[in-house]
Amino acid sequence: MPLEKALQKPLSEKNVVLDKVLLGKLSLLQQKILLELANRPLTLSDLSEKTGSSIYTIGKQLSLLQMRADYNPLNNKGISKPLVKKQKDAGIKTIYFIIPGL
Length: 102
Known about the structure:
alpha+beta; Arc Repressor Mutant, subunit A; two-stranded antiparallel ribbon; 41% helix
């Protein structure tokens, strides 16, 4: 679904509500990542496939959204708390999800 159409719909699903003001502070790719994660937790490969970006690029953006980078440009945009969290599944998969209560 194109980002413009997604932003026109209510941004809530399964108790995850995305604030349009918050989304406006993020890059287009970061917005796409959050909109995909609003539907359900996803792996790095899933996010790469759904956004059409490389795994490396998605990993870098997830690092920023988790506030794990030493220098994080999100701090300059007024975002000081992590937006995404990762969880190692029972196997070797790592899934990413939106932190509830953004």
